[in-house]
Amino acid sequence: MTTTSAEHAGTTGPGIQAPPGLNADQLMEVLGLLAQVDSVELKASVPQAGRRSVVRALGIDPLDAQLRQVVFFDTPDLTLNQHGIVVRARRIQRRAGDAVVKLRPVVPSQLTSSLRQAAGFGVEVDMMPGGFVCSGRMKAAVDDRVLKQVFDGDKAVKKLLTREQRALFADHAPSGVGLPDLEVLGPITIAKLKFSPRDFPRRIVAELWFYPDGSQILELSLKCRPEETFDVTASARHFLAGKGVDLGAAQQTKTASALTFFAAEVSADLPG
């Protein structure tokens, strides 16, 4: 269900313009999804070129950011990622963190009612310039002490997950891959900031991911209700473009970049 950029956009009907980069077929798919999901998150990465001027134009103060650490769990050859499964844990400065088991892409109509109603489970569409993906995720809070022990390799991955999360993993993991087979990929340090621009009516989230090789990804995002998607997309694009964000630039994906980097690091350390 992940889409790629298209050469031209479609329309939903008179006066309703599709998000740029989506063709008519993709638009119809998005419309079908919006009636079945719990939330929508709009995302755009900010290219390195011109990033400082964008940060200045948006009024972002880095000293207001909250530090976080994120770790992913997968095999050295990223078997889970290849099967659409993401297992992630997050430490958050001065508060409890969380762990997530995510499935992507998903077809909401194919999910069982018991899963849709399970505590901590939600279905969300992530939209970015030129594409979208529908995900299902089960999230649960985790004490920071436990998170640190798992990050350091002193506790098993399963200690992070609830019984329901472990069951979700077991139901979707590829044959032969269990929680004990997963490597700790990370951690990666993140600076996260929620801010309210003076000339935009919604809060925006900025996340700066610091990769160990010195590279960075800055992503801007905001959430909205499914029925607001097209109006919010249009207003957000207009606002961000006016602040110098190049929405036509190639999008950098945080998770894929982190998985690729740390999997290569783990593979290099394996014997033979």
CATH homologous superfamily classification: Hypothetical Protein Pfu-838710-001
CATH topology: Hypothetical Protein Pfu-838710-001
How many strands appear in the DSSP assignment?
11
The largest sheet, given as strand count, sense and whether it forms a barrel, is:
9 strands, mixed, barrel
Q: Could you give the order of strands across the largest sheet? A: 3-7-8-6-5-4-9-10-11
Q: How would you classify the helix and strand content by structural class?
A: alpha+beta
Low-confidence stretches: 1-18
CATH architecture annotation: Beta Barrel
| Count of DSSP-assigned helices | 8
Beta-strand proportion: 25-35%
Q: pLDDT average, as an integer?
A: 90
H-E order? EEHEHEHEEHEEHHEEEHH
Distance between the termini: 38 Å
User: For the CA atoms, what is the radius of gyration?
Assistant: 19 Å
Shape: globular
Number of domains: 1
Residues in helices, as a percent range: 25-40%
CATH class: Mainly Beta
